[in-house]
Design brief:
Elements: E1 29-30, E2 36-38, H1 41-64, H2 67-78, H3 97-112, H4 116-131, H5 141-144, H6 168-186, H7 190-205, H8 220-231, H9 234-245, H10 271-288, H11 291-308, H12 339-356, H13 359-373, E3 391-393, H14 406-415, E4 423-426, E5 429-432, E6 438-444, E7 447-455, E8 462-469, E9 474-481, E10 496-498, E11 507-510, E12 513-514, E13 519-520, E14 523-530, E15 534-539, E16 544-549, E17 559-564, E18 567-572, E19 584-585, E20 593-597, E21 606-618, E22 624-635, E23 646-648, E24 651-652, H15 666-669, E25 671-674, E26 678-679, E27 701-702, E28 710-731, E29 744-751, E30 754-757, E31 772-789, E32 797-803
Helix pairs in contact: 1-3, 1-14, 2-4, 3-6, 3-14, 6-7, 6-8, 8-9, 8-10, 9-10, 10-11, 10-12, 12-13
The structure holds beta-L-arabinofuranose and zinc ion.
Length: about 800
């Protein structure tokens, strides 16, 4: 296997240790990414691509999209520059966070690799940020540019909307995170001083006896803890705790303000806000010993992992509110699984591991990392996913940037720090959590030890570790994680399981001799005085596994997903005959084989899975016909690199789950067009019957958020036909969504160049949960058109359209 080198540790001038020594913190401490060098192709490629492509292009996007200009205009306003004519606040109230996040990622990069040009770029950017900070520390361009007419979410006065959408504190959370990273990377206090000035303002503004409002979007809590760690100023920690304690009850699930944080036991509301809050609770609990926070986040973790997590590790089932769904509500095509939420989910699991020392958190973290998180950025580092769905009919594609660009910057900062998730230390205990070729320098009980890791993980399950104490022998307990997937445990809990037991067992050898299988908390522990050249070898069998979901997950019933090692697979259109994959049936008997492929998607090497499947198609009579064909599966993270088309993580293996291709009907063979809306029009003629009007599982075509207007959908037949009836299944996602059945509609047919209404049309129903039938006088035509009137307050959409 080809190896690319990631140059680590060239400039480890400032190690990532907290300067304030006697501070209580997580009982287990991660080994800083500055002390871990990855050379293994999988992550080295990601990290290098992030450094050399994602970070510079994200900065460029921030420049092109006016995000830097916002700081510049705010600065000119503060200087009283009368020549500034454009004082209109545009974009989103949290656009400042995008440069902050990329700055954080770039700082992480500077911690391991000297880049004078980037260093200078950051200096200039920091000077720009400083110039936009108000005299008392307030920093929020969405108001400073035009305090009389700030951003519509900002509120007319400072903090007025802080509980809702102003994001004044969210912006600062990201600033503090960037400031800590920049300071630790470069030793410069330029950004840190900006953060401190702002944090002091917050300490004077918020707290008991002052403003009691909770932040509408969390992250300030984590940011304040980082600021506390680098400065030792306890008031920042106290403010973080205050922001947690002042939240709720009675302020809604969206921002987790429905209950006091310590009373929460279910993951609800906006998934990014939620995971940032739970992570902030873990941080404060680690430092203060607050057990009520711990009890709450332990229960919430159980809820996520047992009831609300996708098999890719993604979270957030619904786009409405970018939120967690109900327990077991995990639709695939409409899965939200925001990239930022995957990152927040990693933060939470890492923190729970640092508190509890159990590998089950790393099992979840690994699942997120290799699947639903890195799917958020293309292999060339240039395009991104915001939601990461598990199924597509071609409506999804990556984008180089977004109006709401929270995800690219988050990726940029996260990927740079990945080596920091591999090892951890607690006194004389060294934990090995993630596998990647490279080396790490750890300090166990005051002794420096180098660990060299040789492996082709995640493609091969053999890992060789060579231990090299700097001097003499060093006693410590080496805890080597045995991933759940290698122990027949797909996930901790019962949300997903392997369809079949694997009889091959993992094996650990110390200096060539098998170590007894004394698994504790997911680790095999070896206690000894380690001497130079000691080796630990790990053999993790990696057969292809079939995964099934808990019976309560309706969306996955009768379906199977494929996993090998930590990687989840999917079927994508370019690799399978006719470009259809949602109609495939992967029977239980079918053998699946791992197949190494070099220079494949985006010129990357990867393990594929091949076999055979049945393709299910309906014939003219509507009967399902099955045909054998080749099946090729690719790692889920690598999908959507070759244009739009079908993709599915879950494939049917039982009859009830089969989704045949539509039979040849007038509708299915027609060309469809409509007034501009969202979704794919193909779904409305796919002959998949919706369960009800809010069933989005098969896709919808909708016009949200448009309302109070007329829309149309047109069906142009392959050849003229005589038609006399039609059936329409309307989309309606009441009570929470924004779509309802239309107020009225009519059917037109094409007569030469003219559209005429069908004669004696009766029906025109606008009922929910049924096919609304309309019969009319038979007419020979080559096209039909529905014209519908959306209601005054709501938008609308369509699930299925049949023609008789
Ligand atoms: O509100 C700020 C960010 O924008 C959230 O974290 C994302 O979910 C997106 O809504
Ligand atoms: Zn995001």
């Amino acid at each position: 296997m080809k190896k690319k080198h990631f140059c680590g540790l060239l400039v480890a001038l400032f190690a990532f240790t907290y300067p304030v020594s006697a501070m209580q913190d997580y009982p287990i401490q991660p080994v800083s990414f500055t002390d871990v060098t990855i050379i293994g192709e999988f992550w080295a490629d990601r990290i290098e691509t992030n450094r050399s492509v994602t970070i510079p292009t994200s900065f460029q996007k921030c420049e092109e999209s006016g995000r830097m200009d916002n700081f510049e205009r705010a600065a000119r306003v503060l200087k009283g520059d009368e020549s500034l004519t454009d004082r209109q606040v545009r974009g989103l109230s949290f656009d400042d966070t995008d440069p902050y996040k990329v700055l954080e990622g770039a700082s992480f990069g500077l911690s391991v690799k000297s880049e004078p040009e980037m260093d200078k770029y950051l200096d200039d950017l920091i000077a720009l940020i400083a110039s936009a900070q108000e005299a008392d520390g307030y920093l929020y361009t969405a108001r400073t540019i035009n305090p009389e007419q700030p951003h519509e979410w900002a509120g007319s006065k400072r903090w007025q909307n802080v509980k809702r959408l102003s994001h004044e504190l969210y912006n600062m959370g990201h600033l503090y995170e960037a400031a800590a990273a920049h300071y630790l990377a470069t030793g410069k206090k330029t950004l840190l001083n900006i953060a401190i000035k702002n944090a002091n303002l917050l300490c004077n503004t918020f707290g008991p006896g002052k403003n009691l409002d909770a932040p509408g979007h969390q992250i300030i809590e984590m940011g304040l803890v980082k600021l506390y760690r680098v400065t030792g100023e306890k008031k920042y920690l106290d403010l973080a705790k205050f922001f947690l304690d002042t939240r709720g009850p009675g302020d809604g699930e969206y921002s987790q303000a429905h209950k006091k944080v310590v009373d929460q036991d279910e993951a609800v509301g906006h998934a990014v806000r939620a995971t940032y809050m739970y992570s902030g609770m873990a941080d404060v609990a680690a430092i203060t010993g607050n057990t009520s926070y711990l009890n709450a986040i332990d229960k919430i973790w159980e809820n996520i992992v047992n009831k609300k997590m996708y098999v890719t590790g993604g979270i957030g089932a619904t786009g409405s509110g970018e939120a967690f769904g109900r327990n077991y509500e995990l639709p695939n095509m409409t899965a939200y699984c925001e990239t930022c939420a995957a990152i927040g989910h990693v933060y939470l699991n890492q923190r729970l591991f640092l508190l509890h020392g159990q590998a089950k958190y790393i099992d979840v973290m690994e699942r997120i990392l290799y699947n639903g998180l890195i799917s958020g950025v293309s292999l060339d580092g240039q395009t991104f996913f915001y939601p990461n769905p598990l199924e597509s009919i071609g409506q999804h594609s990556r984008s180089p940037w977004f109006g709401c660009a929270c995800c690219p910057g988050n990726i940029a900062r996260f990927i740079a720090s990945v080596p920091g998730y591999m090892y951890a230390i607690r006194e004389d205990n060294l934990y090995l959590n993630l596998f990647a070729a490279g080396n790490a320098t750890v300090t166990v009980n005051g002794n420096k030890v180098e660990i060299v890791q040789e492996t082709d993980y995640p493609w091969k399950g053999n890992i060789k570790l060579t231990i090299k104490p700097e001097t003499g022998t060093v006693p410590f307990n080496f805890h080597v994680r045995i991933p759940g997937w290698a122990r027949n445990e797909c996930v901790p809990g019962d949300l997903y399981s392997f369809l079949h037991e694997c009889s091959e067992c993992p094996e650990v050898k110390l200096n060539g001799r098998i170590v007894p299988d004394n698994l504790i908390d997911g680790y095999i522990s070896i206690t000894r005085s380690w001497k130079n050249g000691d080796t630990v070898e790990l053999e993790l069998p990696m057969p292809v596994r079939r995964v099934v979901a808990n019976r309560k997950v309706e969306a996955d019933q009768g379906m199977v997903a494929v996993q090998r090692g930590p990687i989840m697979y999917c079927a994508e259109w370019p690799d399978n005959p006719d470009g259809h994959v949602r109609n495939l049936i992967l029977s239980d008997e079918q053998e699946l084989v791992a197949q190494w492929r070099e220079d494949f998607i985006a010129h990357r090497n990867m393990m594929l899975i091949s076999g055979e499947a049945d393709a299910a198609n309906k014939d003219e009579a509507g009967e399902v016909v099955k045909t054998k064909q080749q099946l090729l599966l690719i790692p889920y993270y690598a999908w959507a690199h070759r244009g739009r088309g079908e993709m599915a993580v879950w494939l049917a293996y039982r009859d009830e789950a089969v989704r045949p291709l539509p039979g040849p009907t007038i509708a299915s063979k027609s060309k469809l067009s409509a007034s501009a809306g969202k979704g794919s029009l193909k779904v409305i003629v796919d002959q998949a019957d919706p369960k009800n009007s809010s069933d989005q599982s098969m896709g919808i075509y909708h016009w949200w958020p448009d309302n109070n207007c007329t829309k149309w959908i047109m069906m142009e037949f392959e050849k003229p036909a005589t038609v006399s009836g039609t059936e329409v299944y309307w989309f309606d996602d009441r009570p929470h969504g924004g779509c309802r059945v239309p107020v009225s509609w009519r059917l037109l047919y094409r007569d030469g160049d003219t559209w005429r209404q069908v004669k004696d049309g009766n029906g025109y129903g606008v009922e929910r949960n049924i096919y609304n039938q309309t019969a009319f006088e038979a007419v020979a035509t080559d096209a039909l058109k529905i014209e519908l009137q959306l209601s005054e307050r709501f938008s609308g959409g369509i699930l299925e359209w049949r023609v008789d």
